[in-house]
Specification:
Elements (H helix, E strand, L loop, with lengths): L2 H16 L5 H32 L6 H27 L4 H20 L2
Length: 114
């Protein structure tokens, strides 16, 4: 499945269950805040997982699986808000990704040649 397919599915879901987004500045403010909250929840789990692993180097247990399961849930929440925001901005993610990759190739090749 392509990223644009995910965007279409998310748009259908939003139209059916959330309602129309019709105030771009307000919608972006809400969505960006929600996205930041989800990233924060993911970051908090990573922090706690890191602390756990510092205490138990190399030990994998049930608590590890719990953290990893929760991290997966949170990163998907981040992805969903990304899709919604991309839809609001009418962003062609494929095109934008490839353009960004080319910019970064140039940028990082300059940095690494110093």
């Amino acid at each position: 499945m392509e990223i644009e397919d995910f965007k279409k599915l998310q748009k259908k879901f939003d139209d059916k269950y959330i309602g129309p987004y019709n105030d771009l500045p307000a919608d972006l403010l809400f969505l960006t805040t929600a996205l930041a909250g989800e990233v924060g929840e993911f970051a908090n789990l990573v922090k706690k997982y890191y602390r756990l692993k510092q205490k138990e180097i190399g030990v994998v247990g049930e608590e590890d699986r719990d953290y990893l399961t929760e991290m997966k849930k949170e990163i998907i929440d981040v992805f969903v808000y990304f899709l919604i925001i991309a839809n609001q901005l009418n962003l062609d993610v494929n095109e934008a990704y490839w353009a960004n990759l080319e910019r970064n190739k140039k940028r990082f090749s300059k940095i690494n040649n110093l």
